[in-house]
Design goal:
130 residues, mainly alpha, globular, mitochondrion inner membrane, NADH-ubiquinone oxidoreductase chain 2, transmembrane, Complex_I_Subunit_2
C-alpha cells in the first residue's frame, strides 16, 4: 500500500526484474526463449516487457539508485558474457535482451525519456531480428 517504504519498493523491483529478465533473476529467459516458436518468442522478447518497464519507470524516483545501478550493471555483464559462447540465435537474442534491459535500467535514473526511446528502438530491432 505504501511504495515509499524501502522494503516495498525493493520487493516490487525484484518482481518486475524477474518479469523482464534482469540479472540476477534472469536464468529462465534463455532456456524459455530457446524452446518457443518465433511468434511467441517475439512476444516474450518485446511485448511482455512493456508493462513491467512502465511500472519501473513510474517507480524509479522512489527506488534506491544503488539498487537500480547494481541490477543494471549485473544484467549488462551477464548479458554480454552469457552471449559470447552461444551458437543458437535465440539464446543470443535472450542474452542480448538481458544486456539491453540492463543498460536501460542504468540510463533510466538519469534520462527516462531516453530510456523509453531506447526501449522503442530495442523493440523495433528485435522484431526485425525475429
Amino acid at each position: 500500500n505504501n511504495l515509499s517504504h524501502p522494503l516495498a519498493t525493493t520487493l516490487a523491483i525484484a518482481a518486475l526484474a524477474l518479469k523482464i529478465g534482469l540479472a540476477p533473476v534472469h536464468f529462465w529467459l534463455p532456456e524459455v526463449l530457446q524452446g518457443l516458436d518465433l511468434l511467441t518468442g517475439l512476444i516474450l522478447s518485446t511485448w511482455q516487457k512493456l508493462a513491467p518497464f512502465a511500472l519501473i519507470v513510474q517507480l524509479a524516483p522512489a527506488i534506491d539508485p544503488m539498487l537500480l545501478t547494481m541490477l543494471g550493471l549485473a544484467s549488462t555483464l551477464v548479458g554480454g558474457w552469457g552471449g559470447l559462447n552461444q551458437t543458437q540465435l535465440r539464446k543470443i537474442l535472450a542474452y542480448s535482451s538481458i544486456a539491453h534491459m540492463g543498460w536501460m535500467v542504468i540510463v533510466l535514473q538519469y534520462a527516462p525519456q531516453l530510456t523509453l526511446l531506447a526501449l522503442g528502438t530495442y523493440i523495433f530491432m528485435t522484431s526485425a531480428a525475429f
